[in-house]
Amino acid sequence: MRLCVCLMLLSAVLCVSADSGLRRAGQFVWDAAGGTWDMFRAYRDMREANYKGADKYFHARGNYDAAQRGPGGAWAARVISDAREGWQSSVSGRGHEDTRADQEANEWGRSGGDPNRYRPKGLPSKY
Q1: Are 51 and 120 in contact (CB under 8 A)?
Q2: d(Cα 24, Cα 22) in Å, to the nearest integer?
Q3: pTM for the full model?
Q4: CA-to-CA dists, residue 58 to 29, 96, 119, angstroms
């Protein structure tokens, strides 16, 4: 009888732990999907604004918005930023210095820094 009770309690604890882990994993994936959307929205706004000198602002804003969702959003922002900068530095010809400055803005936003630090004067308030 005691063995049966112990096994039932152990099973209940394991199920609760697994459920909690599953919930956290699901939240991570949800946050990552939302962070991906935030990064896309910042990229779309950057293209729409087509405003000289606003590149770093949109980098910081996309990373900031994504990271505010939690660990999954911050992860998505880092992966997307690193992939984009890796591709851009090898294809665009803008050089190492531009990539470094973009990554600085990315990290600033991801770490919770105010994206307006990079906001150029005259950028419409819509953004």
Answers
A1: yes
A2: 5
A3: 0.81
A4: 24, 19, 8
Instruction: Spell out the CATH class of 28-118.
Output: mainly alpha
Strands (E) located in 16-90? none
- Alpha helices, DSSP H only, in the chain? 2-49, 55-67, 71-91, 96-110
Token pair of 26, please?
């699901």
DSSP state of 117: G
How far is the C-alpha of 96 from the C-alpha of 8, rounded, in Å? 60
Print pLDDT tens along the chain (127 aa): 565 554 454 454 445 455 678 899 999 999 999 999 999 999 999 999 999 999 999 999 999 999 999 999 999 999 999 999 988 777 766 778 889 999 999 999 999 999 999 999 999 999 9
The amino acid at 114: D
How far is it, in rounded angstroms, from Cα 11 to Cα 15? 6
Angstrom distance (rounded) from CA 68 to CA 75: 11
